[in-house]
Write a sequence for this structure.
């Protein structure tokens, strides 16, 4: 059973990135998406069955994070095999997943 930081990634521009794959059920976690640029950046966040999320799997879609700001989603729960997938329109965005694997 892992706890603490479960996954981290610096996002490439316009690319779906799997930040974390759920290893144990249940897993309870938070996701922090940090915009370290000086520009507003649209981002997507999904808990998906595959690296390319379907429309129904998005938690955030084209949500704009202001410059030097953070978007936090907490209290998320997912089952074994699900992927936390993030996307940003430009580079300079980092994602941290932290929580507890049951």
């Amino acid at each position: 059973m892992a706890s603490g930081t479960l996954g981290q990634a610096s996002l490439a521009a316009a690319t779906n990135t799997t930040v974390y794959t759920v290893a144990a059920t249940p897993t309870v976690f938070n996701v922090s998406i940090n915009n370290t640029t000086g520009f507003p950046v649209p981002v997507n966040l999904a808990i998906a069955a595959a690296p390319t999320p379907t429309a129904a799997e998005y938690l955030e879609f084209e949500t704009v994070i202001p410059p030097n700001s953070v978007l936090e989603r907490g209290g998320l729960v997912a089952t074994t095999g699900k992927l936390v997938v993030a996307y940003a329109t430009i580079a300079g965005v980092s994602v941290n997943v932290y929580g507890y694997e049951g």
